[in-house]
Sequence to fold (379 residues):
Amino acid sequence: MPQVPIEEYDLRVKNARNLTANHGMDALLVTDPVSYFYFSGNKPSRPSVFILPLEGEATLITWSGPEVLSRCYNKAFPSWVEDRRLYPDIPFTTEERVDWGIRGILEEKNLLGGVIAIELGLDTRLGIPVNSLMRLQEEMPKARFVDSGPVVWGCRMIKSAWEIDASRKACEIGGRAFKRCLEGLSIGISAEEIQRRTYQYYLEEGADLLGTPVVALGATGQGGTFQKGDVLYLDGGPSYLGYRMDFTRRAVFGQPDERQEYEHEVMWEILFAVMDRMKPGVPVSEIFEFGQKEIAKRGLKSYSDHPAKRIGHGIGLESEPPSISATDSTVLEEGMILTPEPKIESVDGLVNPEEQIVITKEGFERLSTIPGWELWVVQ
Fold:
């Protein structure tokens, strides 16, 4: 399987440094496992830190396992970062608050009195124990610690051409798996069997080995089996080189009744109307309000009865900002990948149309083209 090209990391470092400087910060500390992987290329299984000053080389702190394996098996270390500080399998210490070596590295880089960005905000997650952060702050009394969200999400929300291609590939892989799943359905199949088959199809089509089963809801029969009249709700998807697919498809067992046909058709009609308004310069809050009005006009019961209940989100290495909700002030930009999904509550469960799109210069490109959005009928 191909890997992330080094030019991609060069771009990420350049963007991160520009944003760090623009926000008056002196260094970026990344401890969240997903963001750490994004910047370093190393997928951590234990607490790890990526340190990026405005000038000079980046440094990472991680456990010794990857280095031992690369040395013993003559394999490349799984990161482009040359300055690597390793701790043993676990940080052997009797102290409750661990020194991961961050302070020492910042001292080497003359940053003990700097403005240090780390995960402190609403949309960021700390990947080291809080006690360790408290110790670091106490040992750096002249430093100012600020939220790294503006830098991390400033980088991750806008996808490069390479990331868009990886996301497109994830959608192709997952879409083919969905199609194979739908073609093999029959009355009496269980939700668990659908999950098992689809996961196998993911792997056969070329998805990452690490993944999660598809969401398969709507079964009313004994043992979680689908009976005549049930509607299958498929949601989620695999990843490719870490980049995720996330869209939905639906199937009805037996001929759909008039209500089922109407709900499916009208909700995808609303979704496509929502997507038509998604282009650079449009606030996601406006997209949310438009979707809510379209649902209300038809007298349907919207799932999003609270302004913070979103009707879509960003997607990349995980479910990411922005949230298409009334509470998010983000303005759409070219290169964002999102999954718009206005949804209603029905007697069959959620009617949740969802597609995966990338914002282009003048509008959007739909990445979720396989299989089609139409209601699949299982005879």
